[in-house]
Amino acid sequence: MEKRFLLRRMCFLTFLFLSLSSAFCQKNTNCDSYRLVFWNVENLFDIWDDSTRADEAFTPEGEYRWTNKRYKTKLQHLCQTLVAIGNDHMEKLHMPLLIGMAEVENDKVLRDLCKGTPLRRYHYEYIHFESPDKRGIDNALLYRRGQFKPFLSQTIPVSDSSADFYTRDILLVEGCLPNGDTLIILVNHFPSKRGGATADLRRTNIARTLRYTLDTLALAHPQAAVMAMGDFNAAPGEPEIREGLMKGQLTPDNHFVNLMETIEPGRGSYKYQDQWSCIDQIIISRNLMEHTSGNAIRFFTDGACIFEGDFLLLEDEKYLGKKIFRTYLGMRYKGGYSDHLPVYIDLMTTD
After folding, report:
1. Strand runs (DSSP E) across the chain, as ranges?
2. Residue 19: pLDDT above 60?
């Protein structure tokens, strides 16, 4: 009952703010392309103990021996990667407009990333809310000031207090592009597979909540670009995604398109033992697949892209091929970037 009430309240607020969005969005004559990124950045913690179990572990005296030097190295690695994504398959630097992130601790780490690294020259701001996750990690969204104008940001709770289950809230952000059109993003980090059938059911229920939210947004504002991005801890073909997320509740099943379905077998954003999988995904409303009347935002690449920069990968001596250069393997510090690869898409706006 509590979850249903919160979802209804979220829907009411969404309808209200969508009706007011024209007051915030002023059209101009720009025609441009924009890169949108999602990346699970693997435990982006500062070095201070803020009382959660994970916070205590990520301190200089904690289990992970998380020193200031290691923290600064992590921030520089993230900055390096995001700049490199801006160069990927582009003739000139094309810094991402929006960057969805999973596994960030708090506002401080986002401020240190946006203002304390060379990323500051690109004028990124961030949106973040604390969630009840027991690990102390949340979702966040970075955006370029002057190119994206948020007019609504809120969370969608998906924890279950009756079962003592607390996880990351879904982050919902709505805003305007320079041409005046509305872009709606939901940033997600579903629970892991730990826990067997119970964990599978939790992911499926969260997927259904997400789909209901997507459907509500699409019906409220059919010309807007509506999308979900995140670490879903399940590949596109698994039941949680196929039956939970891609089954329409208020719109047809095919109203949203999972762009990771275009990735060929053997590639992915995450590697477990010898298996690559696309658990990091970007899902868009079908109206972005073609330029139609009244819709000035268009998805224009062949599919979602996985950023596979050489510096993010190492030789995999055990399972062959490549593996991801992660920050930690268990409790052992490896000095890498993350245990996930970033994924991204490109959008074009026209008037």
Report:
1. 32-44, 98-104, 124-128, 138-144, 149-156, 170-176, 182-189, 225-231, 256-258, 270-272, 275-277, 280-285, 297-299, 305-306, 313-315, 322-324, 328-329, 332-333, 343-349
2. no
